[in-house]
Design goal:
The chain is of the alpha+beta class. The protein is built from 13 helices and 23 strands.
């Protein structure tokens, strides 16, 4: 059945919803309103497609003495205001939460509109919502009144809406499940680092003496040394790239933003590119990051690392990122997880300069002291971590493909171009 054969209707959101409302914020000067048993959501948290938790909680007094409202499971949330790209973000509630004044909740009337279908329909209208707010509201905010008068074209049959939403949700559920598996594997790697190199419970540790290092590190295993970061890697930056060097498509160009996305195992939508010729010239004259090297954010959001573990071609922004050209491959994973450890983070931050916006300097970073475990132990650690990273990479790649397929299907299913009843799509987990 095509859209031409299936009945679609135009419906106002006011008629498709039981209620449309926004929330409020308890007085932040009153601690008795905060830290309670109720979730409370701010607009920035609509970056999460599915709401299962919140960064803050409030008490019953906070609820009773403010204009906050409860968004229930199945409600659709839209950020009506917020910094950057926040306004227009859409989320679906999977756990009851109170909301602030910069969020609008849509509670669908189940007889006319499936709530999950409404979520997917509006999540595909991000640009429309942004344009609507820019054109009609003070300070570019969305209002409940705007949504009440908004008209949507939807299948009249709610069961068709449910089937479309269910298929799309299958993709999102698997993406979320894979993301949890990625987090578990990443946590495993961090735990191994902590056991071996912080608690000193590495393989064979019972046969090794613990001795005084006569440094700020205190007691360390016998045979381990104290080195500087500059002993592990040549620490440098990149060749400067100017605005005139950017092209519409070519070799990806990474800034802190992309490195942070990679660190969080997110799919990257590269915004900047340099030409193949520019990249090849840089590669032949100055070199480019290779497998085992590490990039480190060095301005603003400090100390986020990226371990290069594939032959992907990219270049990166000077002054924005530092390049650790690791001398010996067996030390790559050790340094990468040292950077993420409590000790590594603190040592790095202690060298930062600036007040309003912190920054690292190559000179200071080179002088940081770090423990050097025996070569054989680093090789063993590297082998274990590499296996975990390969499993993570497979899941990241799978999620990228799932998201691409979902994004391809979403507009076609929502518009009726594809008939969901004729699709035989099975979404299954990948073995890792």
């Amino acid at each position: 059945m095509t859209r031409h054969e299936e009945k679609y209707i135009k419906i106002r959101l006011k008629d498709a919803c039981e209620s449309i409302f926004s929330g409020g914020t308890p007085d932040t000067r009153k601690p008795e309103y905060w830290g309670g048993e109720y979730l409370w959501l701010s607009s920035g948290e609509t970056r999460n497609k599915f709401i299962k938790t919140a960064e803050k909680t409030i008490t019953k007094d906070g609820v009773d003495n403010s204009s906050t409202r409860l968004a229930k499971i199945g409600d659709v949330l839209i950020a009506s205001a917020g910094q950057g790209k926040t306004r227009g973000q859409t989320s679906y509630v999977l756990k009851d939460t109170y909301i602030n004044q910069s969020i609008i909740a849509l509670r669908a009337n189940g007889k006319k509109m499936d709530s999950l279908y409404l979520f997917y329909l509006l999540s595909g209208k991000y640009d429309t919502l942004r344009n609507m707010s820019d054109a009609n509201a003070i300070r570019g905010s969305l209002t409940c009144k705007m949504f009440e008068s908004m008209e949507l074209i939807v299948p009249e049959d709610v069961e068709i809406q449910k089937r479309i939403a269910s298929l799309l949700f299958d993709y999102d559920s698997l993406i979320e499940n894979n993301s949890r598996r990625i987090q578990i594997l990443d946590n495993m790697a961090k735990m191994i680092y902590d056991d071996w190199f912080v608690k000193f419970k590495f393989p064979g540790y019972k046969t090794i003496k613990i001795i005084e290092s006569e440094t700020e590190f205190g007691e360390i295993p016998e045979g381990w040394e104290i080195k500087k970061l500059s002993d592990f890697a040549e620490i440098t930056s990149s060749k400067r790239i100017y605005a005139k060097d950017y092209v519409e498509s070519g070799v990806p160009f990474y800034r802190s933003k992309e490195i942070i996305q990679k660190y969080n195992y997110e799919a990257i939508n590269t915004e900047l590119f340099i030409s193949r010729k520019s990249y090849d010239d840089i590669k032949s004259k100055f070199g480019v990051p290779k497998i085992g090297d590490i990039l480190l954010t060095s301005v603003g959001t400090l100390g986020i690392p990226f371990l290069v573990n594939s032959q992907e071609e990219f270049y990166f922004k000077d002054g924005n990122l530092m390049w650790f050209k690791i001398y010996k491959k067996q030390n790559s994973e050790y340094i990468y997880y040292w950077i993420q450890s409590n000790s590594g983070k603190q040592n790095l931050l202690n060298t930062s300069i600036g007040t309003s916006q912190g920054a690292f300097t190559i000179v200071n970073i080179k002088q940081i002291k770090i423990i050097q475990p025996p070569k054989e132990l680093c090789i063993e650690f590297s082998a274990i971590i590499s296996k975990l990273q390969k499993r993570i990479e497979l899941l990241v790649s799978t999620n990228k493909n799932l998201a691409a397929t979902r994004n391809l299907l979403l507009p076609k299913l929502i518009s009726g171009e594809l008939d969901v009843s004729e699709l035989d799509i099975k979404v299954s987990e990948v073995e890792v």
